[in-house]
Amino acid sequence: MKKRLLVGLIIILVVVAAIIGVLYYRQTPIVVPAAEKPQENILVGFSMGTLQEERWQRDKEEFLKRADELGVVVDLQDSNNNSAKQISQIQGMIMAGVDVLVIAPYDADSLAEVISEAHQSGIKVISYDRLIRNTAPDLYLSFDNEKVGEYQAEYVLKSLAGKLDAGKKLKIAYVGGAPTDNNALLLKKGSFRLLQPKIDSGEIEIVFEEFTADWSPDKAYENLKKYLAENKDGVDGVVAANDGTAFGAITALSEYGFSGQVPVSGQDAELSALRRIVAGTQTVTVYKPISKLAGAAVELAIRMAKDQKINTTGVVNNGQADVPAVLLESVPVTKDNIDDTIIKDGYYPREDVYKK
Which of 86, 154, 267, 319 is most buried by a 10 A CB count? Predict the structure, then answer.
C-alpha cells in the first residue's frame, strides 16, 4: 500500500513539473544560444519590427550567424508590424537583463517610453537600420538612406534622358515607403533633392505621390492602379522606395500595358527584383550588403556592452537629438553591373538571378 502511494506521488510530481515546464516555455522569449566562448558573456536583445520582406529574413540570418561566430547570446523577437507587441517584447528583454538592445522599429515614434526604461536599467540601445525618433538611442546604424533615395531618382531620370532632351514635360509617380518608418522620409528627401530642380524647371511633374502603409506591395499596387485607372496616359517614370513597392507598381503598370516601358526604381536587391531587372521591367535596385550591416550591429553591441569607444561617421537628427551614427555605403544595381556587384559578392548565385 505504501509503495503504491509512493509511486502515485512520484507520478503526480512528474506531471506537475511537466505542466510548469510547458507554461514557462510559453512565457519565455526565444533565446538563440551562440557557440560557447567564455570571453564574451554578453546577452543582446534584437527586436525586429517585421520579417515581412525578404531582406529582413536576411538581417535575422546574418545577425545570428555573426553572433554565433563571436560567442554572443541573442534574444531575437519579431513583432510582425505591431507597435504594442514590439514594446511588450522589448520590456521583456529589459526584464531579462540584456546587456544591449538592438532595435529595428516598426513605428519609429512609439518607442520613447520603453527606450527610457532601457536607459534607466543601464541598457544601451542601437537603432538598427530604421531610426527611432523623438528619443535618444545611443547609436544609429544604417545605410545612408538619403543617398539611397538619390540613387533611386537618379537612375529613373537617367533612363528618361532622351525624353527630357526632347523638351516634353514628363509625368513621374513617387511611390513612398511606410510613413511610420523614418527611412521612408529620408528616402523621399534624397529623391526630391534630384527631382525638385526638374520640377522647378518644368521638365517633370509629380502626378502621383503617396506613402505606402507597411511597405505593402499590395497597397502600392492598389494606390497606383487607382491613378492609372483615372489617367489612361499613364506615367513616364516611377520612383519606388523599395523592391516591394516597385513590384506593386510594376504589377499595376503591366495591367495598363506599360510594363517594361516605364523606368522603376527600388532598393534591397531582392531576388525577385534582380530578376525583374534582368527581364527589363525594373530599372534599378539599391544593393545594401546586409551581412555588413548585421555583422557591424553585433560587433558594435559587444563594444557598447564593454563600454568601449565607438568610431562613428557623424550624427543624424531624429527630431529630439543628434544621434551618433554609423552609416554604411550602398550600391545602385542595374542590368549593366549586376554581375560585378550582386553576383561577384556572392549575394545570390548567377543561376538564381538569371533563372527564367
Answer: 267
